[in-house]
Structure formats: C-alpha cells, structure tokens
Design a protein that fits this description.
With about 170 residues, this protein is mainly alpha-helical. Helix content is about 65%, strand content about 5%. The protein is globular, with a radius of gyration of 17 Å.
Length: about 170
C-alpha cells in the first residue's frame, strides 16, 4: 500500500490544480486546453509512477545494475521491440498538448522539455524505488524514447494545426 502513496498524493494535487484552473478567469476553450494537458500528465504518472508493470518487450533478459532496491538498465537502444515503440507513443500526447497550449514554443524548448520529461519520469521511478519500493526498472531507453515522443507529439501538433479545417487548434 505504501508504494501507492505517491500516486495518491499526485492525484490529490492534480484535483487541487484542476479545481484552481477551472476557477481562473479564462475562456472555456482555454480551460479545456489546460485541463487536457493536466489529464495527460496525470495519466503519465499513473502509468510510470505506480507499482504496476507493463511488459510489451521481448523475453530477452537484459543486463542491469542494482543500486539499492532500484534496478537500472544503463545500455541504450539494445532492442527495438514493441515496448520501445510504445514508450515513444506514451509521451507523444504530452508533446501534442504542449503544442496546443503553447503553439509558439520554440523547438529548443520542446527538445529540452522532452528531455526533462524522460529524466523526470525515470528519476521519479528511481527515487520512489528507494522511498516506497515502487519496484520499477530505471532504463536509459525510456529517457530517450520519452524524449522522442514529446518531440514527435509537438511536431504532430504543428502539422495538424496547419491543415485545412484544423485552424481552430491554433486559438
């Protein structure tokens, strides 16, 4: 049960922030955009910072390092299996939502935010392994694929927002 405490606290914080966002003076459309971004962030934490396992990888046992209770896979791009590609798709909605909320973000900011996303999720897993025995793997591939996912999601927004009939995304 202790391993679920961080997610419960994140959920309560998300509810508090969403209530606050709803009360801010803004158009309904702007509120919708901000709440959609918050929902995507909450879903990412639900997938990455809970004591659950999702294994779409092959059955190959990869070499890892144990540092206390944390298991770390330090070798990048060992196999391009389904898990690798799904990890890119995991953070693509975040990149899209960042573009929808802040369409004028520079590519440099998105590249930095993508890297920070991957680092934050994996660092969070590492710290929570130590604090509450989350029992998750810390993997450099996850940092890289999360980074790429945010960049591709933002690029998707940039492309879709300029299609005929999709200019409403730029409001």
């Amino acid at each position: 049960m202790l391993a679920w405490l961080p997610f419960i606290l994140i959920t309560l914080l998300t509810l508090f922030i969403s209530t606050h966002l709803w009360q801010l003076p803004a158009t309904k459309y702007r509120r919708l955009k901000r709440l959609a971004l918050l929902l995507v962030i909450w879903i990412l934490t639900a997938i990455c910072l809970t004591p659950t396992t999702y294994d779409f990888s092959s059955s190959v046992v990869l070499p890892y390092i144990t540092l206390g209770p944390a298991k770390i896979i330090p070798n990048p791009i060992r196999q391009l299996d389904l898990g690798f590609w799904l990890n890119i798709l995991l953070t693509a909605p975040l990149g899209f939502m960042l573009g929808w909320n802040w369409p004028t973000f520079s590519w440099q900011k998105i590249i930095l935010l993508g890297l920070l996303t991957g680092l934050s999720l994996e660092t969070g897993q590492f710290i929570l392994d130590w604090l509450v025995h989350l029992n998750r793997w810390v993997d450099i591939d996850d940092v890289l694929t999360n980074w790429v996912g945010v960049i591709l999601g933002f690029g998707s927004y940039q492309l879709i927002a300029h299609l005929p009939g999709c200019h409403w995304l730029q409001k």
